[in-house]
Amino acid sequence: MLNMKQILMKKILIITPLFFVLISNAQYYYNDIISLTASNSLYLTYQKNNIQQITAQSLEADNTPTPGFSYERQIKNNDASVITQTALESSGISTTYETYQNNVLIHFADSSINSFSNVDYTYNSQGNILNLKTQTIDTSMDMQTTELHQWFYNGNVPDSMLRIKDNADTTVVHFIKDEKQNIAEEIWMKKSRIIEHYYYYYDNQNRITDIVRFDQRAKQMLPDFIFEYNTDNNISQMTEIPQGSSNYVIWAYIYDEKGLKTKDILYDKHQQLLGTVTYSFQ
Questions:
Q1: pTM, two decimal places
Q2: For residue 180, with 0-12 CB atoms within 10 Å meaning exposed, 13-18 middle and 19 or more buried, which class applies?
Q3: CB atoms within 10 A of CB 140
Q4: Domain that residue 136 falls in
Q5: Which residue, 30, 219, 240, 246, shows the most beta carbons closer than 10 Å to its own?
Q6: Could you read off the pLDDT of 44-53 as tens digits, one per residue?
Q7: CB atoms near residue 280 (< 10 Å)
Q8: DSSP category for residue 124
Q9: How many domains does one find in the chain?
Q10: Contact of 240 with 224, CB cutoff 8 Å
Q11: Count of CB atoms within 10 A of residue 220's CB?
Q12: Helices (H), the chain
C-alpha cells in the first residue's frame, strides 16, 4: 500500500493549485483553462480574506507526521507575489514563485534540486488565456525544452489550440462543444492522425464530473478523473485512475465557511485512509 510520503512524491496536488499544469501533459482544456481559472479564483479568495500565509501538516494513516514534510505559502508585495516552499524527505526542497497582475496569474516559476521551470501567461481582452509558454531546464540531464500553447476561441469558448514543442513539434488540438457550449471532446492531431481523444462529462450545473478516454489495456472507455462538488461549487472529492491501472486514489477536500480549503484526505480504492493534510491560515 502506498503511504502519504509516496503519494506526495508522485503528486503536487496539495502543494499548488497548478498541479495539472505542472505534472501532467494530458487534458489541455482542464490544465490550461479550468485549472488556471481555479487558481485565479483561489488567489481572489486569499485576497478577500486577507490571507498572508498558509502552512500545512501532513499525517500518515497511523496519524504520525509524514517524514521530512513541510509547507509554507506566503503572499507578498501587496498580494502581487505568492511564494511557496515545500520539503519532502526524499526529494528535498522545492520553491515556486507566482506573479499576479490585475488579479490573474502572469508568471509561474518552479525550482527544485535538478530542474527549473518558468511559465508565462498572456490573456486576451476578454480575460481568456491566449498563450501559455513553458521553459524547463533539467540540470541532471543537461536538457532544456520549451512548450507553447496558443489558444483560439469562438466567442469565449475554446475552438482549438496549438501545442508547439521546441519550436518544431506541433500538435493541433480541436475542441467539440455540446448543445450547452460546454467542451465535450478534446482531440489531439499530428500529421492528420488522431493521437489522443478525451471526453468531458458534466452535471446539470455544467460542472465537469468525468474526464474519460479509451483505455487500450481494458479495451473500453474509462475515466481518468471523477469529480464531486459541495453546495458552494467547490470540488469536494476527486478520484484519479491511472490509465492501465486499477490502483486509483481518492482525494476528499474539506472547506471552512470562508471557502478556504482546510484539509485534504487521501484514501485508496478500498476507502482505506492513506493520510491527511491540514492547512492553517494567517
A1: 0.89
A2: exposed
A3: 8
A4: 4-281
A5: 30
A6: 999 999 999 9
A7: 10
A8: -
A9: 1
A10: yes
A11: 8
A12: 4-10, 19-23, 28, 35-48
